């Protein structure tokens, strides 16, 4: 099969996987074999080759059709049957270290393909190459976290809400008893405290840089009400280290104060240290606590379960972010995850930029 065709078909299969279909490497090979058998001279042939090899249930058909139309658009396949000795100036194939995008032909309608950035948004951070990581850092800097909000004790004037009796009476007195407007009030909204706990053990190493950059964004969205800690073999407060506006400078500063990067993990002991030293002192009380961890625990799960229970009793909401949560076929069977799930309000994915965006929505609405 010509090289250009193979790259385009593989890119389509991986776009399906990014859209949530359980497409494995074995499915990709079957798809290429089926396409070679039926031929690629017509869109219908490629469609049915993919439909028969890349879908596994009726629920997969609708997203398959959407990705197929988006990926191939109206381009014909006979233009990709030969690999040119040199690419014409009008032919562009932008790649981001493995994130394929379909070839675009200038002078003809460009197919509405999934862009390399969109593919990158759904790509697993743990398997990204250096160029993809660089692009990911740029995209992370564009995220705009919204801090969770809570109602304060004090009130403010409003067009609707609760009746403000004292102000209404004062207004009537000012008018010498004449009928005047009814004044309403509502409670003010303030940022709710957010606490971020980052697992920096060896098993979380592929995701540690991105998690810390996301925490940096959350901190600068609400600097007065956000705290950040790392957990490994020790609990380290890195809020002050992450104060610099430039993320690279902040990560260097954090690296200087965290002594246990990519080491072991003692989640139960770290949660106990946080609750005893910081949580009970007020930092976790009615706060939104976001824990980034895959749940691997060296010690038994009993201590972790007990400390998760204590933390939940203090916090307003506990969100557990696992890099494996969004992967196809994942089951929460690790002892650590099984131990904490009864004490967690939200168990969400944390393996891609798209998952980070969904996480930020969960935090904002907590």
TrEMBL record:
<protein>
    <submittedName>
        <fullName>VWA domain-containing protein</fullName>
    </submittedName>
</protein>
<feature type="compositionally biased region" description="Basic residues">
    <location>
        <begin position="147"/>
        <end position="158"/>
    </location>
</feature>
<dbReference type="InterPro" id="IPR036465">
    <property type="entry name" value="vWFA_dom_sf"/>
</dbReference>
<dbReference type="Pfam" id="PF05762">
    <property type="entry name" value="VWA_CoxE"/>
</dbReference>
<dbReference type="InterPro" id="IPR011195">
    <property type="entry name" value="UCP010256"/>
</dbReference>
<feature type="compositionally biased region" description="Basic and acidic residues">
    <location>
        <begin position="159"/>
        <end position="169"/>
    </location>
</feature>
<feature type="region of interest" description="Disordered">
    <location>
        <begin position="146"/>
        <end position="169"/>
    </location>
</feature>
<dbReference type="InterPro" id="IPR008912">
    <property type="entry name" value="Uncharacterised_CoxE"/>
</dbReference>
């Amino acid at each position: 099969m010509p090289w250009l065709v193979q790259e385009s078909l593989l890119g389509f299969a991986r776009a399906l996987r990014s859209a949530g279909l359980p497409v494995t490497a074995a499915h990709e090979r079957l798809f290429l074999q089926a396409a070679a058998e039926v031929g690629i001279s017509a869109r219908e042939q490629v469609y049915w080759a993919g439909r028969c090899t890349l879908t596994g249930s009726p629920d997969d058909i609708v997203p398959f059709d959407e990705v197929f139309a988006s990926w191939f658009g109206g381009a014909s396949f006979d233009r990709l049957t030969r690999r040119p000795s040199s690419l014409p100036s009008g032919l562009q194939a932008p790649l981001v270290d493995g994130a394929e995008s379909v070839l675009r032909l200038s002078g003809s309608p460009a197919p509405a393909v999934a862009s390399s950035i969109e593919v990158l948004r759904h790509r697993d951070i743990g398997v990204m190459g250096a160029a993809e990581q660089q692009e990911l850092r740029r995209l992370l800097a564009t995220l705009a976290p919204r801090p969770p909000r809570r109602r304060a004790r004090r009130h403010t004037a409003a067009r609707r809400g609760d009746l403000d009796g004292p102000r209404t009476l004062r207004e009537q007195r000012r008018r010498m008893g004449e009928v005047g407007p009814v004044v309403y009030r509502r409670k003010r909204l303030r940022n709710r405290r957010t606490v971020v706990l980052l697992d920096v053990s060896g098993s979380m190493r592929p995701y540690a840089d991105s998690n810390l950059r996301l925490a940096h964004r959350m901190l600068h969205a609400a600097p007065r009400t956000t705290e950040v800690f790392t957990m490994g073999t020790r609990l380290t407060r890195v809020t002050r280290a992450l104060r610099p506006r430039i993320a690279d400078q902040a990560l260097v500063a954090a690296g200087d104060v965290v002594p246990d990067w990519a080491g072991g993990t003692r989640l139960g002991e770290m949660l106990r240290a946080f609750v005893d030293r910081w949580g009970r002192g007020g930092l976790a009380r009615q706060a939104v606590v976001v824990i980034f961890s895959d749940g691997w625990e060296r010690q038994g799960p009993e201590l972790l379960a007990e400390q998760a229970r204590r933390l939940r009793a203090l916090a307003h909401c506990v969100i557990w972010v696992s890099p494996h949560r969004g992967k196809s076929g994942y089951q929460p069977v690790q002892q650590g995850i099984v131990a904490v799930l009864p004490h967690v309000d939200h168990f969400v994915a944390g393996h891609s930029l798209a998952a980070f965006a969904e996480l930020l929505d969960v935090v904002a609405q907590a």
